[in-house]
């Protein structure tokens, strides 16, 4: 009904100018508003999209009052010409009567009562239409709870008339079920500004992710008041089913709106209010809100980290016992609950039968539950569907808990967290049987957390044995960290872990296993279901010698051929250089895909080794290595290594180490880290790998030592054949067989290459895309493209049919239909290149790479086994040729110690050489007449053992010079120098036979020794003069010659005299001093100066042993040491008269040696050696040799001729005493 006839033109213009252009006018009606005294006043009733305005009926008009549609609490129309509104905030009921209809309408045609009824229905229709635009999927009865119309069919007719089907208007619902419109409505309701960014985020981000969870964290940057309309918009929104408001600050008004949403919402299912600082009063209000909404669908409630305490949980428990639909998830972690509150909650859960079939997640962690939990145990003992149970950190009695779990939670329970709880069982008391039976009976257990429980050994044993008997579950993640299991726990794990086949992940972090961790690791390696292992924080405070053993066991485990371990964590172990062995093993490792070596402080040296490993590793995908004290140089090495690595895909940004690098050079750090991230991003995209690098790597593993060993065996066997060929022809069969083995030995060196030629002969076809797999993939791509094209065509036809059915008038022309269909086909064509790229390039790349990897592994295994067999056959044939004897024991070379390696004989060789044969009997015929080529081969290569290294040993990268802080040792460098006649004097050979006539000599007797600073406390031993001893000494003179000089106690260090300098010196000791890279350590005890200058004034004695031709006893000549003066150093030595050196001229006192640095001051006298070199370059100029110099110089005392005579008398007495001995 038009109201233009009832409103004057001036009044209409006044209403428009008053409301302005921003308010859309839906309807204007002139009504009579009843007052309290039953009188009426004329008012203009204006409907806008969200509000209802009442204006005066005068010009100029003004707003009398207004209210929001959501403030309407009740609509009543019991009379046809009356409309009654109850509005929140208005203390009186609004009774409205439509004004009389216009005189232009004939009264005979329209009944006045009917006209008034139509006017009331029109007002109700406008109001319902406005609410339908705001809340399109919510009935008006849910927004305005009380609507009373007489007759009752009047409301149904009204709603039918405004439905989209009846009006023909299909307005879109809008993104997220019209949340933006509802948000604007709520901004108008609360009188707050409308934020465009909020609407854009909801309509764009949430819609694109199809997210049903509204997180207030996304709008935390707004003012607290701006969060109120966002929350209020959820009251009648049907898109969002979750509200997350945790870990932010919320005002009381925002919390009240959350409670209002709970009272009114019909779609909210999950509510997360964790860590909001809520108290027990809020829990009480929450319970009232839940009771006010009988149609609520809320099934998940999270109030963790809010101190609601027992009082708050008591209010909620009354509601939980009445919920008709039950609950799915309850989280009351760290809510300050005690056993009383938990028992109240458990009683409510027991009283609601729906809870047994709905509750799947229960979290009570962080509450103090020391007393009895009878109600909780009773609930858990009933058959239920709990899948996640968390009672960590509650001090609950675990023995009673497992009895309840065994009876009711074995079917559905998947996650069980009981960490930080202590076992109440006393030491020596048995663990209840239900503990073990639960782990045996559990059907779906996937995660088990016993961290920080201080597990008794019996409980640990029952846990592992129970899991070992469980055949229903698999892939279990077991957390035993921080239990201080120590060595005893390691023994228990070692004895039980191999049988736990359901185990997929094991966390043994921080358990103080000590050295027993090595054997435990070996046992863990036997478990063929474990894929993830965490051993962090077990090696931080362990002894160095134990760490080495453990790392060797760990490297041995991951290098096994049947190892299936995929991830390994050694985080925060502080291994430093001990981790180098593991890093060296990563290069050839074929099982690990993820490794965490953070917190080990390996430095740039470790980064360099890690870079070497990454260059050849083809399996590692994830790597964490922060907190290792790596500088820019180390990261530069890693960036360089990633250029050659195409498999590493995830490497977290090393924040801690990069901080220090940024301080040193920010720009260079940025460039290096950018390059690393670019290379990681490159590896994420699949790329076809041609395993030429992997082939060369396998060849290196298999042939590095194999070829040298095979060549050595072949040469030895050929020499033996040459000797055996001179024997009559009865050994021809053996020789022919040996010749065949030699031929196989030559071929086996190229076997791996030949096998890979067979396996990789399709590489050229793969490059051209003509391989059989590529052809099949291309055919699949073509077939898939045809199928997709046909599917798209059918979809277009169905769409056109639907369009013609909906819009027949527009699409009645066939030409129009054809044009539209043609455009649709052009728009929806799938390129063949896209299908080829998806099938051939991406899926095909992964398939072909895997095939090549398997072929390479097969070829390597086959070549390795055949090579072992060839070496074994050659060894047996060589034994048969030489009369079942082995090669003579290799004598130690006379190469200086710094270039000498130790002879490493295999256990088999030692067993075969223990048969009682002498070294001369074991030597090969014609062993001294070797060819020059063979001699060169023996001298220029390291000594090889008779048994080849295992593949495990060959895959390990040798120890680098950066692996040790002390540099190279003499055992790490092979023999590279040829033998000489002089060096043969110093070589340690076998002891001579009894009648050989050789005299034992003490080779290091002439080495300078430290001067004595104290008088001897033991009396000097005197020889026996009995006839029996003399006769026995004569009988054994042939055997014991030289023993007295060999084992005689050395006299004090000799001085630098002409007799000493002319005596032959030990070349090994000289060369060791010259070439050894070991620095003189500070604080070495050998560098300590004499204790007192007075003691240093005593003269030193020295002895120069020399063998006597007639095999008599060796005599020792004691001479007085003397420091050469600068004038005498030019001549080489001072004069000697009658075996006694004259005292030197007075020399200034030099600065003594420092026990910290070992350096001398510039004012110290220089010593000149035989060759005229200064003391700074002489190999004898060491702290030990300086102590052997004349102590008169150090003491600063002048030695006159009388004192020299006294020294001479003492030496003569010592000489006579030695002759008596």
TrEMBL record:
Residue intervals of the CARMIL C-terminal domain: 804-1071
Family indicated by similarity: Belongs to the CARMIL family.
Name of the protein in its database record: CARMIL C-terminal domain-containing protein
Residue ranges, compositional bias (Pro residues): 1142-1151
Region (Disordered): 885-929, 947-1221
Domain CARMIL pleckstrin homology: 28-87
Gene Ontology CC: cytoplasm; lamellipodium; plasma membrane
Feature: compositional bias, Basic and acidic residues: 1203-1215
Biased composition range(s): Polar residues: 920-929, 1054-1070, 1114-1132
GO biological process, one term: regulation of Arp2/3 complex-mediated actin nucleation
Record has Repeat as a keyword: yes
Entry-linked Gene3D superfamilies: Pleckstrin-homology domain (PH domain)/Phosphotyrosine-binding domain (PTB), Ribonuclease Inhibitor
Biased composition (Basic residues): 947-957, 1004-1015
Annotated compartments: Cell membrane; Cytoplasm
Low complexity composition bias: residue spans: 1024-1037, 1093-1105, 1163-1179
Keywords per UniProt: Cell membrane, Cytoplasm, Leucine-rich repeat, Membrane, Repeat
Domain of life, source organism: Eukaryota
């Amino acid at each position: 009904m038009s109201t233009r006839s009832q409103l004057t033109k001036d009044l209409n213009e006044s209403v428009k100018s008053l409301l302005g252009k921003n308010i859309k006018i839906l309807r204007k009606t002139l009504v009579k508003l009843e007052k309290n005294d039953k009188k009426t006043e004329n008012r203009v009733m204006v409907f806008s999209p969200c509000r209802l305005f009442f204006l005066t009926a005068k010009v100029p008009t003004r707003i009398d009052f207004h209210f929001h549609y959501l403030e309407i609490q009740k609509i009543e129309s019991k009379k046809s010409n009356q409309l009654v509104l109850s509005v929140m905030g208005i203390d009186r009921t609004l009774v409205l009567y439509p004004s009389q209809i216009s005189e232009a309408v004939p009264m005979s045609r329209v009944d006045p009562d009917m006209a008034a009824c139509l006017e009331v229905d029109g007002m109700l229709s406008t109001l319902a239409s406005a609410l339908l635009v705001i809340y399109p999927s919510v009935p008006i009865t849910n927004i305005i709870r009380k609507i009373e119309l007489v007759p009752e069919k009047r409301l149904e007719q009204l709603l039918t008339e405004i439905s989209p089907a009846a009006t023909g208007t299909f307005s879109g619902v809008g993104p997220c079920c019209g949340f933006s419109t509802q948000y604007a409505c709520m901004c108008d309701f609360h009188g707050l500004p409308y934020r465009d960014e909020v609407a854009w985020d909801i309509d764009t981000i949430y819609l694109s992710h199809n997210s049903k969870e509204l997180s207030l964290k996304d709008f935390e940057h707004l003012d607290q008041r701006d969060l109120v309309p966002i929350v209020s918009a959820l009251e009648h929104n049907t898109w969002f089913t979750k509200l997350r408001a945790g870990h932010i600050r919320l005002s009381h008004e925002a919390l009240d709106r959350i409670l209002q949403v709970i009272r009114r919402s019909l779609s909210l299912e999950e509510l997360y209010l964790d860590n909001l600082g809520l108290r027990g009063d809020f829990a009480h209000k929450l319970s009232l809100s839940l009771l006010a909404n009988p149609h609520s669908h809320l099934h998940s409630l999270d109030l963790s980290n809010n101190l609601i305490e027992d009082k708050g949980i008591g209010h909620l428990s009354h509601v939980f016992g009445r919920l008709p639909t039950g609950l799915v998830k309850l989280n009351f972690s760290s809510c300050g609950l005690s056993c009383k509150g938990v028992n109240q909650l458990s009683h409510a859960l027991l009283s609601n039968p729906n809870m047994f079939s709905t509750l799947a997640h229960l979290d009570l962690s962080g509450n103090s539950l020391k007393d009895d939990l009878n109600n909780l145990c009773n609930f858990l003992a009933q058959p239920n569907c709990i899948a996640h149970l968390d009672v960590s950190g509650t001090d609950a009695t675990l023995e009673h808990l497992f009895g309840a779990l065994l009876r009711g939670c074995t079917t559905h329970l998947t996650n069980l967290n009981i960490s930080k709880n202590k076992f109440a069982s006393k030491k020596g008391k048995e663990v209840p049987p239900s503990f073990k039976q639960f782990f045996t009976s559990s059907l779906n257990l996937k995660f088990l957390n016993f961290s920080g429980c201080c597990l008794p050994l019996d409980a640990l044993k029952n846990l592992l044995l129970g899991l070992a008997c469980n055949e229903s579950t698999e892939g279990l993640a077991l957390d035993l960290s921080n239990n201080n299991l120590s060595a005893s726990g390691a023994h228990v794990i070692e004895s039980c872990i191999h049988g736990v086949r359901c185990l997929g992940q094991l966390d043994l972090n921080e358990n103080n296993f000590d050295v027993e961790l090595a054997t435990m690791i070996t046992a863990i390696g036997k478990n063929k279901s474990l894929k993830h292992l965490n051993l962090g924080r077990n090696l931080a405070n362990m002894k160095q010698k134990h760490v080495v053993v453990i790392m060797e066991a760990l490297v041995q485990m991951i290098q096994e051929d049947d190892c299936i371990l995929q991830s390994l964590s050694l985080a925060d172990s502080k291994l430093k250089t001990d981790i180098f062995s593991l890093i060296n093993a990563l290069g050839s490792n074929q099982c690990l895909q993820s490794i965490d070596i953070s917190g080990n402080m390996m430095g740039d040296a470790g980064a360099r080794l890690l870079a070497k490993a990454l260059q050849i590793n083809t399996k590692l995908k994830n790597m964490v290595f922060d907190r290792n004290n790596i500088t820019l140089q180390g990261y530069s090495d890693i960036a360089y290594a990633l250029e050659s690595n195409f498999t590493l895909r995830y490497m977290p940004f090393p924040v801690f180490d990069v901080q220090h690098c940024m301080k040193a050079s920010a720009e260079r750090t940025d460039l290096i880290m950018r390059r690393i991230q670019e290379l990681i991003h490159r590896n994420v995209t699949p790329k076809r790998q041609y395993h030429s690098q992997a082939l060369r790597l396998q060849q290196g593993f298999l042939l590095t030592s194999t070829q040298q060993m095979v060549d050595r065996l072949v040469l030895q066997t050929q020499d033996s054949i040459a000797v055996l060929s001179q024997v009559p022809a009865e050994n021809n069969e053996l020789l022919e067989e040996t010749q065949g083995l030699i031929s196989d030995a030559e071929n086996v060196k190229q076997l791996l290459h030949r096998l890979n030629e067979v396996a990789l002969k399709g590489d050229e076809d793969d490059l051209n895309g003509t391989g059989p797999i590529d052809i099949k993939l291309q055919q699949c791509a073509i077939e898939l493209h045809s199928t997709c094209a046909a599917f798209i065509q059918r979809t277009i036809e169905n769409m056109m049919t639907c369009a013609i059915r909906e819009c027949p008038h527009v699409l009645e022309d066939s030409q129009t239909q054809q044009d539209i269909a043609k455009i649709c086909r052009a728009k929806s064509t799938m390129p063949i290149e896209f299908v080829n790229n998806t099938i051939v390039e991406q899926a095909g790349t992964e398939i072909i790479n895997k095939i090549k990897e398997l072929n390479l592994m097969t070829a390597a295994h086959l070549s390795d086994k055949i090579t072992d067999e060839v070496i074994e056959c050659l060894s047996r044939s060589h034994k048969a040729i030489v009369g079942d004897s082995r090669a003579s024991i290799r004598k130690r070379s006379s190469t200086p110690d710094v270039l000498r390696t130790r002879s490493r004989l295999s256990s088999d060789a030692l067993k075969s050489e223990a048969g009682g044969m002498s070294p001369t009997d074991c030597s090969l015929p014609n062993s001294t007449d070797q060819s020059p080529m063979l001699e060169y081969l023996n001298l220029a290569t390291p000594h090889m053992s008779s048994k080849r290294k295992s593949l495990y040993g060959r895959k390990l990268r040798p120890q680098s010079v950066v692996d040790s802080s002390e540099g190279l040792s003499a055992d790490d460098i092979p023999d590279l120098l040829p033998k000489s006649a002089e060096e043969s004097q110093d070589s340690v050979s076998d002891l001579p036979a009894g009648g050989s006539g050789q005299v034992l000599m003490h080779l290091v007797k002439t080495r300078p020794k430290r001067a004595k600073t104290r008088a001897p406390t033991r009396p000097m031993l005197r020889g026996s003069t009995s006839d029996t001893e003399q006769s026995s000494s004569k009988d054994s003179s042939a055997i014991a010659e030289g023993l007295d000089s060999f084992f005689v106690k050395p006299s004090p260090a000799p001085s630098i005299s002409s007799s000493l300098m002319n005596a032959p010196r030990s070349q090994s000791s000289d060369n060791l001093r010259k070439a050894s890279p070991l620095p003189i350590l500070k604080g070495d005890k050998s560098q300590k100066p004499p204790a007192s200058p007075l003691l240093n004034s005593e003269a030193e004695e020295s002895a120069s042993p020399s063998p006597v031709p007639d095999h008599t006893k060796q005599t020792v000549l004691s001479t007085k040491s003397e420091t050469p003066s600068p004038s005498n150093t030019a001549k080489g030595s001072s004069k000697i008269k009658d075996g006694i050196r004259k005292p030197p001229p007075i020399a200034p006192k030099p600065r003594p040696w420092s026990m910290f640095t070992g350096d001398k001051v510039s004012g110290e006298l220089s010593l000149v050696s035989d060759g005229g070199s200064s003391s700074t370059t002489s190999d004898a100029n060491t702290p030990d040799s300086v102590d052997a110099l004349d102590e008169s110089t150090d003491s600063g005392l002048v030695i006159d001729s009388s004192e020299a005579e006294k020294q001479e008398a003492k030496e003569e007495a010592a000489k006579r005493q030695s002759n008596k001995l």
